């Protein structure tokens, strides 16, 4: 999987609203800024979710690759849950990575 985003890991600074590229040797590059003063602390939880995005993306890409190696073709409306899940995984990958 080739991507154009900062590869991660990313970290969420719990005392603020910054999501930083946390790679060793990184100059703590800002990835995103999230408003944390929202209703029911949603901003804090949104920031945590965003900070976990590189790892989640890698898991989805690995699943897709393994299912391809196993011969499971993606099918949107399949009765086979693995094929349906692989189709959904590919949709998420396309949304996250884009193919431009």
Notable characteristics:
2 domains, 100 residues, elongated, alpha+beta, 3 helices
Folded structure, characterized:
This protein has 100 residues and is an alpha+beta fold. It has two domains: 10-51, no CATH class; 54-97, no CATH class. Helix content is 44%, strand content 11%. Helix 2 (53-69) packs across helix 3. The two termini are 14 Å apart.
Category by helix and strand content: alpha+beta
Strand adjacency order, main sheet: 1-2-3
**Which radius of gyration do the C-alpha atoms yield?**
16 Å
| Count of DSSP H/I helices | 3
Strand tally, please? 3
Q: Sum up the overall morphology in one term.
A: elongated
End-to-end C-alpha gap: 14 Å
Percent of residues in helices:
40-55%
Domain module tally: 2
Low-confidence stretches: none
SSE succession:
EEEHHH
State which percent range the strand residues make up: 5-15%
Largest sheet: 3 strands, antiparallel
- Residue-averaged pLDDT: 84
């Amino acid at each position: 999987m080739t991507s154009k985003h900062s590869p991660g890991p990313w970290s969420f600074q719990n005392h603020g609203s910054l999501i930083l590229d946390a790679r060793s040797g990184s100059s703590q590059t800002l990835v995103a800024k999230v408003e944390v003063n929202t209703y029911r602390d949603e901003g804090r939880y949104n920031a945590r979710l965003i900070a976990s995005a590189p790892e989640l993306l890698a898991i989805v890409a690995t699943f897709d690759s393994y299912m391809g190696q196993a011969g499971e073709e993606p099918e949107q409306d399949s009765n086979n849950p693995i094929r349906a899940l692989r189709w959904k995984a590919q949709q998420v990958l396309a949304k996250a990575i884009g193919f431009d």
